[in-house]
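WARN  no MSA supplied for this record, continuing single-sequence
INFO  ligand: flavin-adenine dinucleotide
INFO  echoing inputs
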Amino acid sequence: MIQFLLNDTPIAVQECSPSLTMLDWLRTKKGKIGSKEGCATGDCGACTILVGEEHIDANGQLSWHYKTINGCLLLLGNANAKHIVTIEAVTTGLYPTLSDLHPVQRALVECHGSQCGFCTPGIIMSMLAVYINHQTYPGKKAIIHALGGNLCRCTGYRPILLAAEKAYSYERSYEPYSAMAANFKATLFADLDDIPFLKNGPRKFYLPQTAQQLVELKTRYPHAHLVAGGTDFAIELSQNMLLPDIIISLCQVQELSQLTDNNGELQIGAALPYSQFVELFYRYYPESKELFERLGSSQVRNSGTLGGSLGNASPIGDPAPLLIALNATMELLSSAGSRTINVADYFVDYKKTLIKSDEVISKVTIPKRPESLKLACHKISKRFEDDISTVCLVVAVEHAQNIITQARCAMGGMAAIPKRAKCVEQLLLSQPLHVSHFIDAARAISDDFSPMSDVRSSANYRLTVSKNLMQRIGIEFCQQVAPINSSNNIAITRISHASL
Ligand SMILES: Cc1cc2nc3c(=O)[nH]c(=O)nc-3n(C[C@H](O)[C@H](O)[C@H](O)COP(=O)(O)OP(=O)(O)OC[C@H]3O[C@@H](n4cnc5c(N)ncnc54)[C@H](O)[C@@H]3O)c2cc1C
Ligand code: FES
Ligand code: FES
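INFO  complex generated
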């Protein structure tokens, strides 16, 4: 069985469809219809809920941390041992007055931040997460970041942003959530199953807690579907009507949730959500903010994982070009042991990879940053927030005495797999760090890639934008080495469609 706390009510479930999402369970089994379903694909945020998880700090102190998650992407089984807070718990009482409302609700009313109200529960939950996690107003940028996954189709965002600030002008509300959760943990979790599970006839959902349990299950059920954050997998369920018999969740496997910094070499557990490792990543590779800060929304980054991104093997996943350019490796684990491969070699063809049916991605290792490394990450998408890439380009060069000694360039959205631009790399290698070589390299992108046209853009656009980005990277890199009034100050012409 799985156990979790729903608002202030302990829940234990055993008989249930393994592929049921939290949103469907809340609405159809619990009558909690405050969380709305707008899209069922993680795009609108109307289903946003809070998920509380226990954290242990360096001094061994336990505390509960709350983050936003899309209820439509969270599989019910993945709620095990967590505290689920829904909109119904934000204000209690049947007919609350304005001053009974939680400050974030009261502010939204007073700033006229809701019209039809469909998006409002999700917006309130995102505002609530900010309010719980920041004792003082964190600024407009942080609010926009936190609300990036919440769409409102009628009110407009100005009153909503104002409300997020105004919430801090009232007397601070007492947040009862961690106290509820601490009590729940003490009383109920004494008798958790070794491997918590859900079942519905022959269909099963397993939540192994250790790598040993995980590989044993994967050997017993080689065709079982793995799930980590579920941000890709839940869409397979809702859009492609996938009905798996056996699901094995990775999200509570301790070994897959570790984050290690070995003197600058980072080891990131495959099941660790983005929001739990990006701060450390930025310390060594601040340039990667361009990709990670724009990967989905807060809700998606709070669930999604590197293992899920590589496991999904999408040609437009943002982490792969970065990992390839940084020469990262990945560990594949099975009951026979583990093997390590380069992320660059992992992708074989569209959605085909080197992983075997009994293997699981267990961690990703990013080498220590070389001293002379210059890194540039660019993502082109139709919207800035919460949108998948049209083109993703990452360039990493090392240099000595102004000569390029290593060049790694990887792109997403340009082929059936994320892959290196070997002709581009060849043209950069051993050349002086000068803009003109990046212009030459930009032209070679057509030798490396023949992108396709799809709903996101035409093939021509993909080539044009990636060539212009390569020129821009050249200017940026060379400005950092020598100011623009030196010999790097040459005329740059944007490559147009006509000159392709
Ligand atoms: C609204 C929305 C916006 C998004 N925006 C972006 C974006 O901007 N950029 C981007 O790159 N992605 C984006 N994504 C895609 C997704 O969030 C990422 O690919 C994420 O990293 C997937 O991780 P997950 O843990 O949720 O994967 P899951 O959904 O749990 O799993 C995905 C696949 O990988 C397999 N898998 C999971 N873990 C492992 C493992 N350890 N070993 C082997 N196989 C495994 C699963 O079986 C499944 O087939 C978006 C998704 C949504 C819903
Ligand atoms: S229903 Fe739209 S994000 Fe979940
Ligand atoms: S108030 Fe109608 S969608 Fe936001």
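The domain at 374-499 is CATH 3.30.390.50 (Enolase-like; domain 1).
INFO  checksum written, moving to next record
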